[in-house]
């Protein structure tokens, strides 16, 4: 199985927050912004909506620092998975995460984080603007290259 | 005499990580762990939560005995290792000898017992093992004196306040958490601690613990404090006393000297965890790390090399975070004081409820101290680890002023996600 990755495209994001609500609904059966594992930030300086979530690092710092062994890598999906039954809520992972991805769930008194819904993310299914996509790694890289090339050729056209 | 392929001495996080790493790579190897404790793996980092009553005792244990069985790792619990015969490859314990092909020393650390009169009295605790915390919980403790304001002292003081005790935190140095923070952030942390009800006394040495059979009073250089329990956390040192006269080389810190593959000076003997001495990437000094995450990393490297999978340890980067209820304090790498013999440049950012200090030496980021709503600290940890230049960070300084979150943007494309801005 080829590895799949989540592709975020802030330029397409409108900030409709449906991914946030779907995330909390599919995991917690509640439409709660504070209990969602994805957030949409509004960066005023750049006039940009930025969906943020766990980046599923290959060597996650959170897994390294976790004193209760609640964080592990799923060998199938490559996702960084949090076990909220083992977590004691010390928030070390929240502190070290470069993206601020782990969320403290006050109902469970434990950290929760994106688990890629076991390989079929709910946020991607609900995003109407393709700002969130779940693609094969190779496909994502090729697409990214093509877009970059298109940008370069557009710029060259303008010059010529 | 029992004989195993790999024997791991110590059933802490280092020993367990090493044993389980080897099991992942080699399913037929016979692996055993020998330990003087009767428990499966437990996390000492969770003691403050257990002490405050936030979690139950059972949650301290990260593994059950079935987990060892499933991984086919043999356990020799309650076996105290007296010495090791490196020539014949035999470990001597009080309950018989165990032969080995390869040995992993993950013996850990033990609390330093200061030379104070009365440390043997009832009611004096050295928190290191589960039993110490059980004892402290059973003990009344209306008024508790904590000696040593390191991470253990600070976290325990808050946990004891949570339990409703009156807490005095006595520190010999001029500030709390002096290994992690410089004066300014330490004074912010002190204010936060005092706000929670901890009485912080710095530049005071405990000279005597008085009382009959149990503790009644602590005498410091400045005052006398009446109390019914004393918790001493003045430091940890490696448990390497049994190796002092052996071929295994010990460093100046008392830790076992290892190379970057975690090999000791004796062939087929590896070491990892609290008991070894490694190089600090921030300062270049040989240090004891004594932290959970570094032990885990070292044990992984040791386990891999033990079964022939070549891995190198990149050096230790110490970082630690403390939950102060209202705020978090986080420190990574070196403090300004540690680097005082070099050309140090400091950048500070301060706002309401937010303090950040970056320490540069020789134009390279060496340390970060943060008090406030600590998030996204992973970026700065990586920046120190990668020896990011002062120029590289300065380019991001403008972003830093807007929001610490924007740090994350410089991480574009490094994770498993294609990120486009």
Strand order of the largest sheet of chain A: 1-8
Quaternary form? heterodimer
Low-confidence stretches of chain A: none
Provide the CATH architecture of the largest domain in chain B.
3-Layer(bba) Sandwich
Summarize the biggest pleated sheet of chain A: 2 strands, antiparallel
**Quick one: overall form of chain B?**
globular
- Specify the helix fraction band of chain B: 10-25%
CATH C-level class of the largest domain in chain B = Alpha Beta
Label the structural class of chain A. alpha+beta
What value does the Rg of chain A take, in angstroms? 17 Å
The number of helices of chain B is: 10
CATH level 1 name of the largest domain in chain A: Alpha Beta
The amount of beta strand of chain B, in percent, is 25-35%
Q: State the CATH topology of the largest domain in chain B.
A: FAD/NAD(P)-binding domain
**Structural class assignment of chain B:** alpha/beta
Radius of gyration of chain B: 23 Å
Major sheet details of chain B: 7 strands, mixed
What's the structural blueprint in terms of helices and strands?
The complex is a heterodimer of chains A (160) and B (421).
Chain A: E1 4-8, H1 18-28, E2 39-43, E3 48-52, H2 61-65, E4 71-73, E5 80-82, H3 92-96, E6 103-105, E7 110-112, H4 122-126, E8 132-136, H5 137-159
Chain B: E1 2-9, H1 13-25, E2 31-34, H2 47-51, H3 65-70, E3 73-76, E4 81-85, E5 90-93, E6 96-105, E7 109-111, E8 124-125, H4 130-138, E9 143-147, H5 151-162, E10 166-170, H6 183-195, E11 198-201, E12 206-210, E13 217-220, E14 224-226, E15 229-232, E16 236-238, E17 256-257, E18 269-271, E19 276-279, E20 286-288, H7 292-306, E21 319-323, E22 328-333, E23 344-351, E24 354-361, E25 364-372, H8 377-385, H9 390-394, H10 397-402, E26 418-419
Parallel strand pairs in B: 1-2, 1-6, 2-3, 6-18, 8-15, 9-10, 9-15, 10-11, 17-19
Antiparallel strand pairs in B: 4-5, 5-6, 7-16, 12-13, 13-14, 19-20, 21-22, 22-25, 23-24, 24-25
Helix pairs in contact in B: 1-7
């Amino acid at each position: 199985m080829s590895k799949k990755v989540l592709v975020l495209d802030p330029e397409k994001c409108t900030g409709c927050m449906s991914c946030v609500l779907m995330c909390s609904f599919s995991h917690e059966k509640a439409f709660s912004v504070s209990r969602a594992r994805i957030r949409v930030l509004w960066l005023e300086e750049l006039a940009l909506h930025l969906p943020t979530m766990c980046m599923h690092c290959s060597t996650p710092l959170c897994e390294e620092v976790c004193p209760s062994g609640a964080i592990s890598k799923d060998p199938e999906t490559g996702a960084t998975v949090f076990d909220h039954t083992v977590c004691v809520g010390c928030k070390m992972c929240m502190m070290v995460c470069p993206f601020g991805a782990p969320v403290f769930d006050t109902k469970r008194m434990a950290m929760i984080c994106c688990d890629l819904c076991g390989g079929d993310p709910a946020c991607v299914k609900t995003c109407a603007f393709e700002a969130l996509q779940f693609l094969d790694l190779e496909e994502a890289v090729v697409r990214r290259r093509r877009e970059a090339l298109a940008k370069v050729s557009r710029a060259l056209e303008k010059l010529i | 005499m029992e004989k195993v392929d790999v024997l791991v001495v110590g059933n802490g996080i280092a020993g367990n990580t090493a044993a389980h790493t080897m099991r992942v790579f080699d399913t037929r190897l016979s692996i055993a762990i020998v330990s003087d404790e009767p428990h499966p793996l437990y996390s000492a980092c969770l003691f403050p939560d257990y002490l405050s009553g936030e979690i139950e005792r059972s949650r301290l244990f990260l593994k059950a005995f079935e987990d060892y069985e499933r991984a086919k790792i043999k356990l020799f619990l309650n076996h105290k290792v007296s010495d090791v015969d490196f020539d014949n490859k035999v470990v001597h314990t009080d309950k018989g000898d165990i032969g080995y092909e390869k040995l992993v020393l993950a013996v850990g650390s033990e609390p330093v017992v200061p030379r104070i009169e009365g440390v043997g009295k009832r009611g004096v605790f050295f928190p290191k093992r589960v039993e110490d915390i059980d004892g402290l919980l059973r003990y009344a403790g209306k008024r508790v004196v904590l000696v040593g304001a390191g991470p253990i002292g600070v976290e325990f003081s808050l946990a004891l306040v949570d339990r409703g005790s009156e807490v005095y935190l006595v520190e010999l140095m001029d500030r709390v958490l002096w290994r992690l923070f410089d004066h300014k952030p330490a004074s912010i942390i002190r204010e936060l601690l005092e706000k929670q009800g901890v009485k912080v006394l710095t530049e005071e040495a405990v000279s005597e613990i008085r009382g009959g059979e149990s503790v009644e009073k602590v005498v410091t250089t400045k005052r006398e404090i009446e109390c019914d329990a004393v918790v001493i956390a003045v430091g940890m040192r490696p448990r390497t006393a049994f190796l002092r006269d052996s071929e295994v080389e010990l460093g100046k810190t008392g830790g076992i000297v290892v190379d970057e593959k975690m090999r000791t000076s004796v062939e087929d003997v590896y070491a990892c965890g609290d008991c070894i001495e490694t190089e600090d990437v921030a300062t270049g000094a040989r240090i004891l790390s004594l932290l959970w995450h570094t032990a885990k990393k070292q044990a992984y490297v040791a386990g891999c090399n033990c079964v022939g999978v070549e891995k190198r340890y990149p050096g230790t980067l110490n970082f630690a975070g403390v939950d102060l209820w209202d705020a978090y304090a986080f420190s990574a790498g070196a403090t300004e004081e540690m680097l005082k013999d070099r050309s140090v440049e400091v950048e500070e950012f301060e706002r309401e409820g937010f303090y950040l200090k970056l320490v540069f030496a020789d134009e390279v980021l060496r340390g970060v101290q943060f008090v406030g709503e600590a998030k996204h600290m992973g970026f700065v940890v990586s920046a120190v680890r990668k020896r990011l230049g002062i120029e590289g960070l300065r380019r991001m300084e403008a972003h830093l002023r807007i929001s610490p979150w924007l740090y994350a943007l410089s991480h574009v494309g490094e994770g498993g996600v294609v990120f486009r801005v």
